[in-house]
Amino acid sequence: MQRTIAFVFAALFFPATVFSGGPAIPDKVILKKTGIKKIVIDAGHGGKDPGGPRRFGLKEKELNLLAAKELYALLKKEKLFATLLTRETDVFIPLAERSRIANDFKADIFISIHANACGNRKENGFEIYFMSEKASDPWAAEVADYENSVTALEEGGQGDPAAMLLHSMARNEYLNDGSFLAGLVAAEMGKGAPFANRGVKQAAFYVLRGTYAPGILVEMGFMTNSTDQKKLNDKKIRAKIAKAIYRGIMKYAALKGWKRR
Ligand SMILES: [Zn+2]
């Protein structure tokens, strides 16, 4: 069922790539043989979409990519995983395309990295989201609305009724694991990253909804808070964030019984 939906999804949006045939991608053959677990790291925004407002320093799309690459480097060292970044450069990728990348890779975990923003400059701290049709509170709904608003820059994409229907078909089977992973990453962030812990929340993020894997969205800190922003612009602190997410993933892998091969 899941594969059928993924196929229909891909066929609707990317008919050329689905039906073009062509040689198998060697990486995929290797992955199938070893049964190695796969992680997709998604640096939010990019290209014409800079992300949230900032007071100074790097743009959200730049902070997200730097943190994502840091996490990628840590996971790359693990023989346990094959890891893929949805983007490695400053390019615009529609949300549906990010999901397609994860689904094509047959991701076991999907991690989307962002930085938060709020009109109230006092708001600070990190939040870890997992996908749920219902937001846990009005603020969570606001954050999801903001992160979803990038679809205004996309052609077709999520506003398409067919896309919405397919997304509503996404199964709930990943939600429990998504919540579990969110809890583990939040606990590690609370210990290792110097930001206030705003906890685990849920909301309907398109990028998580379209992905057939347990997924979380990390809001590392607030771009609109000067203390948080200073920290986000510090390479050493971004390394701490990446390390904390990495430790959360390693705990998840251990508790899931993913064995080293
Ligand atoms: Zn964002």
Task: Describe it.
By secondary structure, the chain is α/β, with parallel strands linked by helices. The protein has 11 helices and 6 strands. It has a domain at 2-7 and 37-124 and 134-183 and 210-235: Aminopeptidase (3-Layer(aba) Sandwich), CATH 3.40.630.40. Helix content is 48%, strand content 16%. Strands 2-1-3-6-4-5 form a 6-stranded mixed sheet, with helices on both faces. α4 (60-76) links the parallel β1 (37-43) and β2. α4 crosses α11. The radius of gyration is 17 Å and the shape is globular. Zinc ion is lined by residues 44-45, 51-52, 60, 114, 147.
Detail the topology: elements first, then pairings.
Blueprint: H1 2-13, H2 15-19, H3 26-34, E1 37-43, H4 60-76, E2 81-85, H5 95-104, E3 109-116, E4 126-131, H6 138-148, H7 161-168, H8 173-192, E5 197-203, H9 206-209, E6 215-222, H10 226-232, H11 235-255
Parallel strand pairs: 1-2, 1-3, 3-6, 4-5
Antiparallel strand pairs: 4-6
The structure holds zinc ion (ZN).
Zinc ion binds at residues 44-45, 51-52, 60, 114, 147.
Most strands sheet: 6 strands, mixed
- Please report the number of helical segments: 11
Q: Quote the CATH topology of the domain at 2-7 and 37-124 and 134-183 and 210-235.
A: Aminopeptidase
What share of residues are in beta strands?
Answer: 15-25%
The CATH class of the domain at 2-7 and 37-124 and 134-183 and 210-235 is identified as Alpha Beta
Low-confidence stretches: 1-33
The average pLDDT score comes to: 83
Structural class: alpha/beta
N-to-C series of helices and strands: HHHEHEHEEHHHEHEHH
Total number of beta strands: 6
Strand line-up across the major sheet:
2-1-3-6-4-5
Shape: globular
Q: Return Rg in Å.
A: 17 Å
For this structure, what is the CATH homologous superfamily of the domain at 2-7 and 37-124 and 134-183 and 210-235?
Zn-dependent exopeptidases
Termini separation comes to: 29 Å
- Ligand inventory: zinc ion
As a percent range, the share of helical residues equals 40-55%
Please tell me the CATH architecture of the domain at 2-7 and 37-124 and 134-183 and 210-235 by its name. 3-Layer(aba) Sandwich
